[in-house]
């Protein structure tokens, strides 16, 4: 593990960087989870100091800020749909796909 962004309540199965590399989108795929969200993270802020020696630990892990909330740009609810796939279009619009459930 290189670094950890804390925000979802379960395992993240969908990650995608925006085309310009400035935003990281994350979503979870877990039916029945209380999360059902897509979160947008500030990738530039998270990795801007990657080249400095004091940014990595002896194990090679990245020391992200204490609170991942500092990197969270937004949270978007998907009602009750788990996220299967994330995609940024050429115009940098985020598309999220999930499995439909009639429940």
TrEMBL record:
Domain of life per record: Eukaryota
Keyword Cytoplasm: no
Any one GO biological process: transcription initiation at RNA polymerase II promoter
Start-end of each WD repeat: 5-42
Molecular-function annotations in GO: RNA polymerase II general transcription initiation factor activity
Pfam families in alphabetical order: WD40 (PF00400)
PROSITE patterns documented for this protein: WD_REPEATS_2, WD_REPEATS_REGION
Keyword Glycoprotein in record: no
Signal sequence, start to end: none
GO cellular component, one term: transcription factor TFIID complex
Keywords: WD repeat
PANTHER family reported for this sequence: TRANSCRIPTION INITIATION FACTOR TFIID, TRANSCRIPTION INITIATION FACTOR TFIID SUBUNIT 5
Protein name in UniProt: Uncharacterized protein
Organism: Micrurus paraensis
